[in-house]
Amino acid sequence: MFTWLGRFMYVRRRAVLAAAGLFAVLAGVWGSGLFGSMSTAVLSAPDSESQRAIDLLQESFGHPPGEVDTVAIFTDPTGDLTVDDRGFEQAVTAALGRLPESEVTFWSSYWSPGLTPAERAGYVSQDRSAVLAVITLRGEGQEERLQAYGAIEGLVRADDGRLETYLAGGSTSRFHLEAQAQESLARAQLISLPILLVLLLVAFRGLVAATVPLALGVFAIVGSLGLLRVLTYLTDVSIYAVEITTLLGLGLAIDYGLFLVTRFRRDLDAHDGDVAQALVGTMRTAGRTVALSGLVVIIGLCGLLFFPQPISHSLAWGGITVVLFNLIAALLVLPATLAVLGQRINALSPPWLRRRSGVSTREDRAWAALARSVTRRPVPWLAGGLAVLALAAAPLLSLQPGATNHRYLPEDNEGQVVPQMVAEDFPAGGPSESRVDIAVVGRVGEAAMRDYLSAIDRLDGAYEPVVNHAEGDVTWATVGIRGETDDAVNLQLIRDIRSLTAPEGADEVLVGNDGSPAMTFDNTEATTAALPWALGFVGLTTLALLFLAFRSVLVPLKAVIVALLSLGASLGLIVWGFQQGNFQGLLDFYLVGTTDVWTLAIIITIAFGLVTDYEMFLVHRVYEEFRATGDNTRAIRTGLQETGSVITRAGLLMVVVLASMGFSASSLFIMTLGIGLTLCVVIDATVVRSIVVPAAMQLLGRANWWPAQPVPDRHRIRPSLSKEPS
Q1: Residues 6+ apart with CB under 8 A from 596
Q2: Residue 572, exposed/middle/buried by CB under 10 A (0-12, 13-18, 19+)?
Q3: Which stretches of 353-504 are DSSP H helices?
Q4: What is the count of structural domains for the chain?
Q5: Which residue of 167, 288, 371, 434 could cross-link 637, Cys pair, CB 3.0 to 4.6 Å?
Q6: 54 lies in a domain?
Q7: For 28, what's the count of Cα atoms within 13 Å in the CB-facing half-sphere?
Q8: Residue among 137, 530, 499 at smallest CA distance from 306
Q9: Facing residues of 132 across strands?
Q10: Residue at 137 is within a domain
């Protein structure tokens, strides 16, 4: 198939490029409308108890006044003004009075009429230099209320020149997390592109060759955005889908471009400049490997569809679409480009970088020495590599599940500032106190409800359970909590409430609300329940695909096992670095002390294909050499030596893309995602690909290819080992 594809791309090269150019223009125009069609990223599982409680209460009572969506704190940082000053009151009431009824259904502050002295005291700080206001936003769902928050975010701030205003709440945190995701993406591109241009020039040793992968990346991203806009008519697509599209689109385009261009150059040398034969050889070897690699990455991304959260599906579709277009770019657009360029792929090469055919470099000799050492002493090398992976994975034993919330914002972000001010300066039990909703369905008498609430009041961590509303067969009760949503005492409180006997007459009791410990608990449970299914699907499908590719049992098994070991090591370093705070000296983030299991699941499914990627390029080169010689040791040495430089460069370029996002991020979620994926690539491109895989293949010998031993490939052109694999 790939031989035919190489011939077809050579014959139809100009028509293919014209069609690709036209498609890119149309997709760019159409895809530009995606940003106006994106939805809010929803992290809750639709069928969880907490989400069912939210839906039931929303359906029964709507979004009633008194439901706190946003907390605003007004303060004089100089301490000159207090709430007893007329100017303070005028500035705050003027700001709150500007809130439009189209976006806000209710607000309350220190000066609101009808408050008792005890209630009024909850709105003012102990030194009386600050007051808070609670705001109920208009909207039936999370997305509508988030839009309402965006509309009032500037209006609610005091403009007297003396008071400062800080806003927080579930809507605020989501608003800032999504905004910072977009800012991080833009920053990462500004940082990474100049570095990539320099590294690509060095890696490809020519300006023409260096620009080709970037063009492929643009094509893949533009095509993906166009397809994502189509998907907005069928499902929700969030800003995080664009994040992963840009991330994988550029990184994989560089990877695939590097492998294909490198092989094309070698085949040009081997065929004395015959472009047609070189292209056919490139597609038959590197093209087949790229296709296999892309399918493995897509399989990993499909694992995201097993998680129930809508944001997981959005990330999956963003990744799947961009990898599909990366494959189209690599297997159709790039071959046509190479066919047109021919020898000009080496054009505009600076003299100090110019390729010298047949000359062995220091880098080649280093990889040859490592290959000889690993194949001579596979047991100590394999044991050492596995020990490193086990040591890196050890911190996973101390994993503390948590939630992504306001603490993932920078410390100086108002979403972080307000909760700290409330905890330190305002009396406990005030109007902004966190709470848990309880929906009781059925005809429940007042006495039975009182007994039920009394039982809740006796639980550790529960404060002042009360009935909020009752109408028909639904009673809405609330119970106050202190601390963070993933504190152990609050998570245990959810378990305890759910384990209580339902009040007499109740048909069902549902516990949970947005941003509560119940949602944290349910989200962690839903993620951990789905993870084995996701890994099972990804692992088994990858096994089947690699078996069809190599006709081997042990090569696919080894690939999946090694990928899981590599991921375990990476996740262990994430826990060590972020949860335990060992990356704080390198990165600026607020130490939360917990790890969102969902974030780890996202890293696993995205990284599975990436960590298998480089192994496939190595193993396929070993497979190719073994088919030609039947000598396992020679095949491993040749594969490691000839792919060593190109895989190292590909890994370095991918690290630049991923690390730029991680280091430039201001939110802990994006930071963890970027650095976590960086660690996965680094570990796989070094310890796994250079040591563990070749040592294991040496120990397995000819059993690598059992049950079907490869037959010699008469069509294969064997490039000389002395030629530089640039």
Answers
A1: 401, 402, 403, 404, 669, 672
A2: buried
A3: 362-376, 378-393, 414-425, 446-457, 488-499
A4: 4
A5: 371
A6: no
A7: 9
A8: 530
A9: 73
A10: yes
Q: Among the listed ranges 31-45, 306-320, 467-481, which one has the minimum average pLDDT value?
A: 31-45
Please tell me the distance from the alpha carbon of residue 463 to that of residue 490, in angstroms, as a whole number.
Answer: 11
Q: Are residues 243 and 228 in the same domain?
A: yes
pLDDT tier, 460 (very low <50, low <70, confident <90, very high otherwise)? very high
Question: Do residues 524 and 623 both lie within one domain?
Answer: yes
Q: How far is CA 280 from the centre of its chain?
A: 37
66: left (phi over 0), alpha (psi -120 to 50) or beta: left
Q: What CATH number should be reported for the domain holding residue 87?
A: 3.30.70
Domain boundary among 497, 515, 533: 515
How many C-beta atoms lie closer than 10 Å to residue 380's C-beta? 11
Model pLDDT for residues 39-48, shown as the tens digit of each residue: 766 677 888 9
Same domain, 389 and 338: no
Which of 108-117, 430-439, 575-584 is most confident?
Answer: 575-584
Is residue 239 assigned to a domain? yes
Alpha helices in 505-631, H assignment, sequence order:
517-550, 554-574, 597-629
Averaged pLDDT for residues 84-91: 91
Give the domain range for residue 478.
435-515
Q: What is the mean pLDDT of the chain?
A: 87
Q: What is the CATH number of the domain that holds 310?
A: 1.20.1640.10
Tell me, what's the pLDDT at 250? Answer: 87
